[in-house]
Amino acid sequence: MAEHGTVAVTGVTGALGSRVAARLAEQGVPQLLVGRSPERLPELPAAQRRGPAAYADAEAMRTALEGAETLVLVSGHRTGRRLEEHATAVEAAIKAGVRRVLYVSLVGASPIATYLNARDQWLTEQFLAGAGIRHTILRAGIYTSTPAALADEDFVVRGPGGDGRAAFVTHDDIAAVITAAALDDQYDGATLEITGPEALTLDEAVTRIAAATGRPYRYEPETFEQAFAQRWRRGVSGTQIETWISWYQAIARGEVAMVTDVVPRLTGAPATAVEDAAWWPSPNTARGIPTRQGES
Ligand SMILES: NC(=O)c1ccc[n+]([C@@H]2O[C@H](COP(=O)([O-])OP(=O)(O)OC[C@H]3O[C@@H](n4cnc5c(N)ncnc54)[C@H](OP(=O)(O)O)[C@@H]3O)[C@@H](O)[C@H]2O)c1
Fold first, then answer.
1. Residue 2: predicted pLDDT
2. Tens digits of per-residue pLDDT, 60-117?
3. CB 250 within 8 A of CB 295
4. Cα 233 to ligand 1 centre (Å)
5. CA 5 to CA 70: how far, in whole Å?
6. Looking at the domain assignment, is residue 218 inside a domain?
7. What domain count does the chain have?
8. End-to-end CA distance of the chain, in Å?
9. Whose CA is nearest to atom 11 of ligand 1?
């Protein structure tokens, strides 16, 4: 087995970072698992648990990253201060002597992206470009699991996605690409768009999710006005509504429909079709989305 330098991974208590850490562990790579709650970090071979370290805590991040050669920085939750949080984490990594950063961004990242989350991801990309450290941008496509999580308790996915398309990609495929890039510095300087194998409408994707899970998922397109009014009546805040609706609108406008060969090229296996995904979240589990009974 090739000898690898130590890789620090953040977001390991989450769906993506946990999969990256598990894959690196399978390959015997020494790791630092960095998190806000070290007691919730998994125990893995050749891995040290480090923290508590939030991205915005420069000193805690620097201490947690001591000894790492490469950092896999999973983007944090949307707080309105993500650029500052990510920038602080990158500067802490530089101070700790980290030599390469792999930043997990979002497909379609742009200052004028319709999906609001793709705008502040772009800001972090720009920060990294000027930070003076070797880096790779890994733009994760729209998760295959998200429509299942956005569905209500009756398994209905409602939103203004029209008949636009998205190249849904599984967490496992994204984690496999990140792992490959973390172990091969030929990707330094690259921006890789990680997508699924085909661009599907929400109707097509949700129909396949229903078949795969045996649950009665269905998609009901809404107009923008219906989408806004329905969520407002359910007590969702204006900021949440904007972000939520912008996810559907990015699909409606074709901004996340690009299909790339990044998964097969870096992993040697075809990208996973929606119906073959190995993991499905429960309905009504998208972050920050209130249930009919109250805020989740
Ligand atoms: N491509 C897409 O379709 C898509 C969809 C949703 C989100 N995303 C982005 O991709 C990221 C990873 O996705 P995921 O499915 O793994 O999300 P997830 O399961 O919610 O995990 C997010 C991870 O990031 C950590 N984290 C969040 N904010 C942090 C901060 N300020 N400082 C330190 N750690 C922080 C969380 O730690 P704690 O356990 O301490 O909270 C958790 O481990 C998300 O955070 C989000 O930025 C992408």
1. 58
2. 999 999 999 999 999 999 888 999 999 999 999 999 999 999 999 999 999 999 999 9
3. no
4. 28
5. 7
6. no
7. 1
8. 45
9. 75
Pairing of strands 200-201, 165-166: antiparallel
Compute the distance between CA of residue 270 and CA of residue 167 in angstroms, rounded to an integer: 14
Six token digits for residue 295 = 């805020």
Residue 94 lies in domain: 7-144+168-194
pLDDT at 292 (0 to 100) = 40
Instruction: Report the CATH number that the domain containing residue 22 is assigned in CATH.
Output: 3.40.50.720
pLDDT surpassing 70 at residue 288: no
Indicate which residue's Cα is closest to atom 7 of ligand 1.
Answer: 77
pLDDT digits (tens, 9 = 90+) for 37-52: 999 999 999 999 999 9
Identity of the residue numbered 166: A
| 152 C-alpha to ligand 1 centroid (Å) | 22
- Say what the pTM is: 0.96
Please indicate, yes or no, if residue 180 is contained in any of the structural domains: yes
Q: Is the pLDDT of residue 290 over 70?
A: no
CA pair distance 136, 102, nearest whole angstrom: 5
Residue nearest to atom 1 of ligand 1 (CA): 142
Q: What number of other Cβ atoms are within 10 A of residue 16's Cβ?
A: 21
Residue 200 lies inside a defined structural domain of this protein: no
Helices and strands, number each (H, E), in the chain: 10, 11
d(CA 46, CA 24): 10
Contact 85 CB / ligand 1 (< 6 Å): yes
Distance CA 195, CA 10 (A): 22
Q: With respect to residue 163, please indicate whether it lies within any of the assigned structural domains.
A: no
CB atoms within 10 A of CB 27: 13
Of 247, 215, 24, 7, which Cα lies nearest the Cα of 143?
247
